[in-house]
Amino acid sequence: MKRLRFMWLLLWPLALPSVFAEDFSFDSAWQRLLNVSDKLAADNQQLHRAEAERDAARDLYLPSLSINGSYTRMEQPLELDLRKLNPLASLDVTTLPAQYAAILGSIPGSMFVTPFTEQDIFSASLQAMWPIYTGGQITAAQGIQKAKVAEEQQQQELSRRELFTTLVDRYYAVSVTAALVQTQQQLVDSLQQHYHHALQLEQQGQIAKVERLNARVALDDAEVTLGSAKRQYEMAHIALSRLLHDADASISSPMFVLSNPLSLPQLTELTLKQHPALKLLNAKEQQAKGLIDLENGKYQPTVYLYGNYTLYEDDSLLSQMTPDWMIGVGVKVPLITRDGRSGKVQAAKSALLQARYTKAQTTQDLSLLVDQSYRQMLQAQEEISALESSKALAEENLKLRELAFSQGLSTSLERVDAEIKLSAVKTKALAAHYRYLQAYARLMAVSGQLDEFIGHSKQQETRHAG
């Protein structure tokens, strides 16, 4: 920790604010990202939505109960005129004896009319319907919603792993660019000393003017490169701060290289066994199967129980004749519909095949990704090892060139070239370290071993703190 803080001080004024900022270990940065990520928050809400829709589908087996009310105004009330019924309708009054004809003629017409309803009708009732057989449509619909929940869970895990690799890229980019600034600053400091030395030797007549100019040009180039390195550090620091939603995040976990090699067959097995992309496609396959069952169920009859209880009715004769409650069993058999059931079945079968083919392709892609990342990690590790010897050679060569130049046995160009070569070796080593961590992070993410990466970062931080 003290060493890292000292390194930030070397980057003044670029890193001065970070001295007062909160230090994030890689583990703490990961925990913060899990809490502040808008992407994960959005995926979490999508999962809650799928879970709510799954819970809603559980109610499909329950009966429905509703209160229905109505008001109807008819053109005229329903009435029954007895004179329109036999035998009165077919009776010829002229054929009757006079006294009977007189009696019938004296009866008012309203006495022959029986009203059944009023012109305005009010009613209210409690109605219930309970499906008891739907051809498997309810079960299929519930299975589809359950598979959608599984899909969203795996999508959330995919987002989590993607964020993990993004954090690795941005977190260690800060470390690499900071070290790069430090390396370039050392180069600039060394070339400044060399330039002043060359200036003194020129004034003493020990070297030509061109030697001093060569030292000046090398110093100018190094200062330009230092400015570029500082800009890279600034962008890396901004990217990490935006990712963590922290205005001035600083890091404390150094880069590392594993001491023990990883097992490629084990990584491949873990990846193909539990990768969320494959589980997501399994959920897609289950949804497609559910759609097939759902559409096939529409060819089956629907059986249901129903009931009705009258809550309010008027005082008409028809209301008195109507029972207060009734229950029964109903059946609905589809014969000809216009919803395109056969086409929907074929579409669902195509979705099933699509999920299976996509799963097969994804399996190949994941296996290739593991192989590529593993070999990239090995390549970066070999470069790191090879550059150690190159660094030792460059350091020794620089010492010799400095001694030879001070004694007039070497030119400024040779001395500057040795300094630049050493800086180039350090820069290559930093780049190789960064590529190594990126490849290692991809392997851990694709195989679901995020905790392994975090554990190694903790161990490295503990070693440096000690």
From TrEMBL:
InterPro entries: OMP_efflux, TolC-like. GO terms for molecular function: efflux transmembrane transporter activity; porin activity. It comes from the Bacteria. The keyword Chaperone does not apply. Its main location: membrane. The keyword Transmembrane applies. It is found in: Cell outer membrane. GO terms for cellular component: cell outer membrane; efflux pump complex. Belongs to the outer membrane factor (OMF) (TC 1.B.17) family. This is Outer membrane protein TolC. It comes from Shewanella fodinae.
